[in-house]
Amino acid sequence: MQIFRNLKPYWKSVIIIALLLVLQAYCDLSLPDYTSKLIDTGIQNYGIENCSPKQIPEKAYNVIDGFMDDDEKAVWEKYYKDGSDGYYYLTEDGEKHIEEVDSACMKGLMMYYYPYQMVNSDEDNAIKAGLDKMGITLDEMPEEMWAQIGEQMKPTVDGMLDSMGEDYMESTAIACTRICYDSFGYDYKAGQMSYLKWAAVKMLGMSLLMAAAAVLIGLVASRVAASVACGLREKVFNKVIAFSDAEINKFSTASLITRSTNDVQQIQMVTVMMLRMVLYAPILSIGGIVKVVENGAGMGWVIFIGIAAVVILMGTLMVIAMPKFKVMQTLVDRVNLVSREILTGIPVIRAFGREEREEERFDEANKDLTKNTLFVNRVMTFAMPILMFIMYAISILIEWVAAHKIDAGVLQVGSMTAFITYTMLIIMSFLMLSMMSVMLPRASVAADRIQEIIDTDVTVQDAAGAKKLEAPRGVVKYDNVAFAYPGADENVLENISFEAKPGQTTAIIGSTGCGKSTLVQLLPRFYDVTEGSITIDGQDIRDLTMESVRQNIGFVPQKGILFSGTIASNIRFGAPDASDEDVKLAAEIAQASDFIEEKEHGYDSAVAQGGGNVSGGQKQRLAIARAIARKPKILIFDDSFSALDFKTDVAVRKALGEHVNDSTVFIVAQRVSTILSADQILVLDEGTIVGKGTHKELMQTCEEYRQIAESQLSPSEIAASLGTDSERQV
């Protein structure tokens, strides 16, 4: 899956997160065990952790010794010493090997002290009846009689050992140890307080360690997710910047914006949750299962019931919600597209009184997205009460089953508490995985949409071994050029051949849709030619790097595009190192200096996004100044004088003739008056050149051009234009 591939560069951080998750899981799984011991050992057993008595009366020691086999006796006698005061004491070496001592003395200890529990109980039993008949107490009974009782007790104790869990058996043995301590007034209550305090300190330490691990996990996971998102945005942006117009049109601007923002955000969010939950859930569930097995409560089947219920529920929800997740991103694209169109076209919408219809269009797209989102949210909201019901039902089932086991003497209260906690942790881990399995499809769709951009082949790119265009003169030649848009059946341009030289102006005119703009857009390689070639100084532009070609071209598009910043920053856009004098000269040539200097802050005046705070004519003049400031060898004006009045048009062309006289100039125009003085005029009709020459020549040789001129100029203007062409301006 692409989401996981995105994490490959950050594998070290992922390993750190995994180690921290193991630490967090260890603490999380240790706390229920501490709680169990707090109840069973700290409270019920008064802080006595081991059944081996630290001090035992001599008589009890001898009787228990008689109940043991040879191996148990060896351990028992090795780690206890006679205190010569009527008691035997556990040695320091015995403290170090306490588990070995517990194992050796557990059975004998129960055989000796269990009769005391029987005698002190309210129930009638054979031991109590026998002592009453003899008129003695257990303490007064001689050691010889203990051997007989031991033989009677042995089957009972063996049965207890077989039926009880290990924890409960040890607890029963500790109860016998308490009877031993009670017999001589041992102060085990002080030990109980010490145990409880120490257990509290350890639980607090575990909690703090778990909290610290969780904080570090969140920090590292957030940094990794943010880095992944940053890298994806950078990849998408760099790829989109390299796209030709064909790729831009394939995806649409609105979709590209959604993919680089909303889709990346989805991946970032899921990456954080994945690093914190998807990695944590298996660790927690496996650890919980191990703890349950160690607990020995014999209720593992309850866990499988809970897990099965969660999986069935989440599987059902996934089947219902999954299709809606896949549709959601497309609906977000639609809302962005409609919003962008409406916001950028507000003047037109108002002019044609289409506010209500556009509101309805946006409302339709918005409601579709809202319905889809509400459906998904309602499904997930519906899931939470059911999941809570399952968890509480499992808790009740555990308590019901555990109550019977506690009553049967095979389970402790603390073990039940721990089992409930472990069960909830295991179920929660599967719940986390189930929730992520619902979220992952949407993120997967987002990842695929982003990868689609990254994997898209750019149709216009540098060829292998492309050279830089160095010290160009600016001689441009179109040699039998043909062009068709990607996916189109017919060529837009055919058999285009001409040459443009430095110091000369080549004008292109023709009817709307004849391919004028397309022709000049081939030169900076917005598209690549389908047939033929375009050369600069005899070098095919496909054999040159796009950067070096475009660095020598000043391009002014049909629609003047400005960027947020200042007037000076916009003029310097293509020439960051341009001096203030160069900026002012470019503005003067473009006839923009007058309105700039009228502003309060002059060249430092702010320009809104898209140039929204300047008029169309001012925007176009600033775009012209931007191209001139670059001092390019080739200047392209793609119908860039259309928003200028006739007076300004003339002034701009005159200034260009005076200051830009060594560049190759292309002018795409609709107005004949703009190109009257051009050195070479190309007349296009349905993608082919039907006329080539000066204005005077074309009026005589080209019917299409003559019709255009006669439709725009009066007879007197035509006569004046044919009078002389010796004082041409650019």
Describe it for me?
- It contains 28 helices and 15 strands.
- With 730 residues, it is an alpha/beta fold.
- The chain has a 6-stranded mixed β-sheet.
- α13 packs antiparallel against α17.
Q: What class do helices, strands and sheet pairing give?
A: alpha/beta
SS strand fraction? 5-15%
The average pLDDT is 83
Tell me the span between the first and last alpha carbons: 59 Å
Cα gyration radius (Å): 45 Å
At a glance:
This protein has 28 helices and 15 strands. By secondary structure, the protein is an alpha/beta fold.
Topology:
Blueprint: H1 2-5, H2 11-44, E1 55-57, H3 58-67, H4 70-79, E2 80-82, E3 87-90, H5 92-96, H6 98-120, H7 126-134, H8 143-163, H9 166-182, H10 189-242, H11 245-251, H12 253-278, H13 280-295, H14 300-344, H15 346-351, H16 355-407, H17 413-455, E4 476-483, E5 493-500, E6 505-510, H18 516-521, E7 531-536, E8 539-540, H19 546-551, E9 553-556, E10 565-566, H20 567-571, H21 580-589, H22 593-598, E11 606-607, H23 616-629, E12 634-638, H24 646-659, E13 664-668, H25 672-675, E14 680-685, E15 688-693, H26 695-701, H27 703-712, H28 715-723
Parallel strand pairs: 6-13, 6-14, 9-12, 12-13
Antiparallel strand pairs: 1-3, 2-3, 4-5, 4-7, 7-8, 10-11, 14-15
